[in-house]
Amino acid sequence: MSEKLKIGITMGDPASIGPEITVRAFADKALYEMCNPVVIGDADVMAEAVKIVGKPEIRINSIEKISDAKFEYGTIDVYDMKLVDISNFERGTVSVISGEAAFQYVKTVIELALAGEVDATVTNALNKEAINLAGHHYSGHTEIYADLTKTSKYSMMLAHENLRVVHVSTHVSLRKACDLVKKERVLEVIRIANNACKALGIESPKVGVAGLNPHSGENGLFGDEEILEIIPAIKQAKQEGIIVEGPIPPDTIFSKAKGGMYDIVVAMYHDQGHIPLKVLGFVYNQKEQKWDAVSGVNITLGLPIIRVSVDHGTAFDQAGMGTASELSLRNAIEYSILLANSKKIN
Ligand SMILES: NC(=O)C1=CN([C@@H]2O[C@H](COP(=O)(O)OP(=O)(O)OC[C@H]3O[C@@H](n4cnc5c(N)ncnc54)[C@H](O)[C@@H]3O)[C@@H](O)[C@H]2O)C=CC1
Ligand SMILES: O=C(CO)COP(=O)(O)O
């Protein structure tokens, strides 16, 4: 029996590019050399994805328990939830059926990880509108994982090569995000960022904290969140022995971090952190009218189990076309192995 780590990978929204990019990732022999991968999804949908991607040599092995997985290159083991009737389902659209299925794959992979049946979890994208239509009122995986693992202190991290970003808030309106910049939360995220770097093998991480306002508020001229909330959080983190600087003006902190000045950036809200990461990881080629690369990962920090995700969405506009890139999924699987080996994520 192989000693490799077992990685549970959700198929994502069945109507999305998730099934196709999963086949592409599994078509690479190197994946099976790194780990024992298993898909949590629907075998029939995966069999269709094999056709879309044009890999007829790949077999789908429908299993009901992880111990039935073969973990052999050329076979994709699918923990088969049988939630989608492929004769009656449409790719590239939001639906209750797909939302329900995507939610159940996530719930199941969390249960498998909590039970120790898989060593780490990787998620393909789900569609937030679809899961909500299906009655699961969450704003994303992050909140589902936090709820089902009973975690109260967590944060979303995105990473692309040496640029890492952790967020003070994520899926809330911009107005609300400003109100969530509070000393206690900023401090909590600084601590989470520091621990995450250590889990990734960085011995003495240097944390950079972004300001909220233009020029970090220019000493109160353009807003006082820096003075009232962010600077006090940084002061306390320093007292705790964390190597941390800030608030750094948000327009330059990411160039500094990319150049190596910081190991990780604490961003004050979703798009402040997501835009620089995606400008680096998503490369659009106008001449050929396609994405040359879609790379980077999304990690939920603070959980008792490991969760790494693709950092793109469901890409319904490309579903069923066989054109989507599996690079971000490969990045996510590699990161999950790194973290599972470290087992120090918190
Ligand atoms: N981890 C997750 O579950 C995530 C889910 N979403 C959800 O996905 C849905 C769509 O979100 P959008 O903002 O449209 O972002 P998106 O990432 O799905 O699409 C943005 C653009 O990137 C392209 N693209 C995305 N992934 C690609 C890949 N692997 N290969 C080639 N091209 C790719 C798409 O075709 C599109 O042009 C929303 O419901 C959103 O909530 C978005 C981000 C992450
Ligand atoms: O939408 C996302 C990033 O904006 C991803 O969110 P989740 O990882 O919570 O699903």
TrEMBL record:
The keyword Metal-binding applies. It holds the Pfam family PdxA. Keywords: Carbohydrate metabolism, Metal-binding, NAD, Oxidoreductase. It catalyses: 4-O-phospho-D-threonate + NAD(+) = dihydroxyacetone phosphate + CO2 + NADH. It comes from the Bacteria. Its cofactor is a divalent metal cation. Its EC number is 1.1.1.408. GO terms for molecular function: metal ion binding; NAD binding; oxidoreductase activity. It is an enzyme of class 1 (oxidoreductase). Catalyzes the NAD-dependent oxidation and subsequent decarboxylation of D-threonate 4-phosphate to produce dihydroxyacetone phosphate (DHAP). Homodimer. Belongs to the PdxA family. PdxA2 subfamily. This is Putative D-threonate 4-phosphate dehydrogenase.
